[in-house]
Structures are given as structure tokens and as C-alpha cells.
Task: inverse folding
């Protein structure tokens, strides 16, 4: 099995069924994990901030994966180029914690989450599972063969963020 490490402000997409995508230390950042069960295309984005407009030098052009508004569409486009189809994608989220901002002054985690949900909603993308918020960092692993998304907070056992589907075939947002 090959491990593809996704750094902060980075993204990886693979169609290699032997690959595992991993990102570490998600605090206020958010990981967007996508997986197509037919093509076995997996993608993982680790973005830092909600809006590339804060990048006065280029609106995120130099580092598009740092921002929800530029990185999220790129993650999906790259997955489609590898053979994924939007209607089949299993989408799960993790992160968005308040780890540095104990008093909620900046609310970066909450702002990241709100921006991401708005982007996904406008694109008609359903979220099948999530573990967001709180005050702890997380490590996320995504297995491209099975689509299993594992999460590990510091000092805790690793656990799976399962894809949840409603009775009508739609998704439900659910914390693991």
C-alpha cells in the first residue's frame, strides 16, 4: 500500500486502489474526502481558510488548495478527470475545530465549515458523513480501495466515519 500525504493547503487525487490518502493535524482546517465506489477514485483536500479573497496578491491562484472556495472545486474537477462521477461520490468531512481560538474571536473552524457547506450545497453535492467542530485536532486516512475514512484524535483510538444514507436515498449529515 502506498501512502500519499496531503499537507496543509494541499490536495491529492488518485485512482490507484493500493493508495491511502492521509492528512495530519486538522485543527480549524477542514478535510474534504471524496470517493467513487465504482471507479475507486479517492481524493482528499486539506484547506485552511474559507475564502481566497484574503490573499491580496492573487486571490488564491498561487495556493488554491489553501481556501475552500478555490480548493473544493479543484478537488472535484481532478476526481472527474480520473473517472469519478458526481452522482456516485461519497463525501465526508472532518476538522473545523476551535483549537487556538478558545474564546471564539475568529471562529475560523466554524467559518471554514459554513463556507464549505455553502459551496457543496450550491454544487448539489451531498455530504454523507462528518466529524466537525469541537476543540481537538484530528488525523484522517482515506483508503482508495474500500473508501473507508478513518479518523484519529490525539490520545484516542482510530475510528471510522461511515457514509450515512437516508431511506429515500438522500444523504444525512451525521457525526460519527
Result:
Amino acid at each position: 500500500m502506498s501512502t500519499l500525504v496531503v499537507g496543509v493547503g494541499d490536495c491529492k487525487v488518485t485512482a490507484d486502489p493500493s493508495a491511502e490518502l492521509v492528512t495530519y493535524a486538522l485543527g480549524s482546517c477542514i478535510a474534504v474526502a471524496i470517493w467513487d465506489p465504482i471507479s475507486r477514485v479517492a481524493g482528499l483536500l486539506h484547506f485552511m481558510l474559507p475564502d481566497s479573497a484574503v490573499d491580496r496578491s492573487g486571490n488564491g491562484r498561487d495556493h488554491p488548495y489553501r481556501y475552500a472556495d478555490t480548493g473544493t472545486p479543484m478537488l472535484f474537477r481532478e476526481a472527474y478527470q480520473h473517472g469519478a462521477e458526481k452522482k456516485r461520490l461519497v463525501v465526508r468531512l472532518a476538522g473545523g475545530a476551535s483549537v487556538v481560538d478558545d474564546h471564539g474571536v475568529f471562529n475560523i473552524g466554524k467559518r471554514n465549515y459554513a463556507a464549505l457547506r455553502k459551496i457543496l450545497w450550491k454544487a448539489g453535492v451531498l455530504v454523507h458523513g462528518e466529524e466537525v467542530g469541537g476543540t481537538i485536532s484530528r488525523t484522517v486516512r482515506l483508503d482508495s480501495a474500500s473508501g473507508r475514512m478513518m479518523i484519529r484524535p490525539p490520545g484516542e483510538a482510530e475510528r471510522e466515519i461511515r457514509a450515512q444514507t437516508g431511506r429515500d436515498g438522500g444523504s444525512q449529515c451525521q457525526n460519527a
About this structure: The first helix runs from residue 68 to 81. The CA atoms of residues 27 and 157 lie 18 Å apart.
